[in-house]
Write a structure and sequence with these properties.
Layout: E1 6-11, H1 14-24, E2 31-36, E3 46-47, H2 55-64, E4 69-72, H3 75-79, H4 82-88, E5 93-94, H5 98-105, H6 107-116, E6 124-127, H7 130-139, E7 144-148, E8 157-160, H8 163-174, E9 186-190, E10 195-204, E11 207-208, E12 212-221, E13 225-236, H9 243-263, E14 269-279, E15 282-289, H10 297-300, H11 308-317, E16 331-339, E17 362-366, E18 369-371, E19 383-385, E20 389-397, H12 400-413, E21 419-420
Parallel strand pairs: 1-2, 1-4, 2-3, 4-5
Antiparallel strand pairs: 6-9, 7-8, 7-9, 10-11, 10-12, 10-14, 12-13, 13-16, 14-15, 16-20, 16-21, 17-20, 18-19
Helix pairs in contact: 5-6, 7-8
Bound molecules: adenosine monophosphate (AMP) and glycine.
The site of adenosine monophosphate has 13 residues, from strand 9, strand 14 and strand 15.
Length: 429
């Protein structure tokens, strides 16, 4: 393969900027196309105004631009079957099929896979009506975690200390239908206590690559207070992620799940993300995701020593097991800069200044940013805010503490009208 490859990356967050940034550094020296992208991805290649949910529009774009590979960032198009449609059109694509994406898109499907594969996970009961679910919480022992079965942008999980709280959660799903069809089926789970961690591997059928781990911060405010967000910061690798834990997670969780999915006719190809709780009895699965995490990608992708493009091409071709996946021992910390008010209401359109040059030590991955429309054609076009999570300042260090100091130094140098970020990312490590 020469240096005339065209790679299309689908998505618009910091995760997709990190993926595009890594692929741009491939020895294949590809041309980078991003749909729809942001002001950061525009510096690596060409943005196209096609949304991540517009599957037919993306197929047209991939054909028009002769994409050699399309890399899908977010879960929504995966769950909607974008990979199946691309393959029907003879287009090469990285990500799981609709059937395999159910590992994230249906929590009851994921439980069935785990039960059949004997994978440790929170005990759960599945319900299709409010009456049966309420009957259960009134007789079982709290606390409970009430979950909508389908995709709900991270919001369909309600932690309930008491049966009364669980009843409110059940009614929000079945009666007021706050989560739409995602709440047609509801799981009531055991509340697991312990250290939460996200595990990532490239998976190609039953094959699971070298894995790595990261931790993220979901609440808006310091001290894990405030509302749940898409993620306010992350670090990788956690110091407790050692060879013993890795062996256990591989043997008890990742390999049995990959093997089971292949066995039942929906082999997984793509990034498999396991959300775990490290409990007193060992690691247990909270959930699976069928793609990279955000903001975990911003600290995990920079640690990938191997060529992401080559790995993605091989996964798409079913030959990943011939490749070596190597993660560096460096530590990375990412601090998310948000618009004040997020995840509630916030203003946009503020000019962003003080952005450092990207280096081996630090990168700023954009999310809600765009080039000022008036000046779009100008070389010196201003970058303005356009979303709740605006960017992630990611930095490398020998230790998490070193990486944390420099990530905060960068975060402090970036300015926009209503900038807000947590001050305690990776402070507890
Ligand atoms: P999920 O959408 O399944 O990732 O859930 C969102 C968050 O809720 C997780 O990252 C955990 O912090 C929490 N959570 C979900 N399920 C459980 C559980 N069974 N026990 C404890 N915490 C949970
Ligand atoms: N960091 C959580 C997620 O990507 O779902």
């Amino acid at each position: 393969m020469g240096s005339d490859m065209n790679i299309l990356i689908v998505g618009e967050g910091s995760r997709e900027h990190a993926i595009a940034w890594k692929i741009a550094s491939s020895p294949h020296a590809p041309r980078i196309l991003i749909a729809p992208g942001n002001a950061g991805t525009a510096q690596l290649g060409d943005n196209f105004d096609v949304s991540a949910g517009d599957i037919e529009g993306l197929i047209e774009l991939a054909k028009e631009e002769s994409a050699d590979l399309t890399f899908i960032g977010p879960e929504i198009p995966l769950a909607a079957g974008i990979v199946d449609r691309f393959r029907e059109e003879g287009l090469r694509v990285f990500g799981p099929t609709k059937a395999a994406a159910r590992i994230e898109a249906s929590k009851s499907f994921a439980k069935d896979v785990m039960t059949a594969a004997n994978v440790p996970t929170a005990a759960a009961e599945v319900f299709h009506s409010a009456g049966a679910a309420i009957g259960y919480v009134e007789s079982a022992t709290p606390p409970f975690v009430v979950k909508a079965d389908g995709l709900a942008a991270g919001k369909g999980v309600i932690m309930s200390e008491t049966p009364e709280e669980a009843v409110v959660a059940i009614n929000s799903m079945f009666v007021s239908r706050d989560f739409g069809n995602a709440g047609d089926t509801v799981l009531i789970e055991q509340w697991l206590r312990g250290q939460e961690v996200s595990i990532f591997a490239f998976v190609d059928g039953p094959y699971v690559s070298e894995m790595t781990a990261a931790c993220d911060y979901k609440r808006a405010k310091d001290g894990d207070l405030g509302l749940n967000t898409g993620g306010m910061g992350s670090y990788s690798p956690p110091p407790f992620w050692d060879d013993e834990l890795e062996r256990k997670v591989r043997a008890e969780i990742m390999e049995p799940v990959a093997a089971r999915m292949a066995e039942i006719g929906c082999p997984f190809q793509g990034f498999l993300y396991a959300g775990l709780m490290i409990t007193k009895e060992g690691p247990k699965v909270i959930e699976f995701n069928c793609r990279m995490g955000d903001p975990e990608a911003q600290v995990v992708i920079p640690r990938l020593k191997s060529d992401l493009l080559e790995l993605a091409l091989c996964t798409a071709e079913g030959t990943l097991s011939e490749q070596k996946v190597e993660w560096s021992d460096d530590s990375w910390v990412g601090v998310v800069l948000a618009s004040d008010g997020y995840p509630g209401g916030y203003e946009t359109g503020f000019e962003i200044s003080g952005l450092p040059e990207d280096s081996e030590e630090c990168v700023v991955f954009h999310a809600g940013t765009k080039l000022d429309e008036i000046l779009e054609t100008d070389q010196n076009a201003k970058i303005v805010t356009s979303g709740g999570r605006v960017m992630t300042a990611a930095s490398r260090g020998k230790t998490i503490s070193d990486a944390r100091s420099s990530a905060y130094e960068i975060a402090g140098s970036i300015e926009f009208g209503n900038v807000y970020y947590r001050g305690d990312i990776a402070a507890d490590v």
